[in-house]
């Protein structure tokens, strides 16, 4: 009896160089562009202007997302968001907390 070995099961998802959550962002950009094209065309904007706006926005956002992917990698965006939420300083307005810490340390 043998066991099947599934290679690459634990590896990150990647498509054309885009990794992890950047694939989702690119999908949202393309879906949003399609929606924007439909809305602009339905509102009566000329076809050429609608196409130029949508293509230009997709190209710009594609370059921006690829740059983030290259700069930060798979988990870099999540780490950046966590670092932005960290406090720069911890303020203690009541000295009783600090005194209780020193008293507990003396007891041990």
UniProtKB/TrEMBL annotation:
The chain crosses the membrane at residues 21-41, 47-65. The keyword Membrane applies. It comes from the Bacteria. Pfam families: DUF4133. The keyword Transmembrane helix applies. Keywords: Membrane, Transmembrane, Transmembrane helix. InterPro entries: DUF4133 (IPR025407). This is DUF4133 domain-containing protein. It comes from Algoriphagus pacificus.
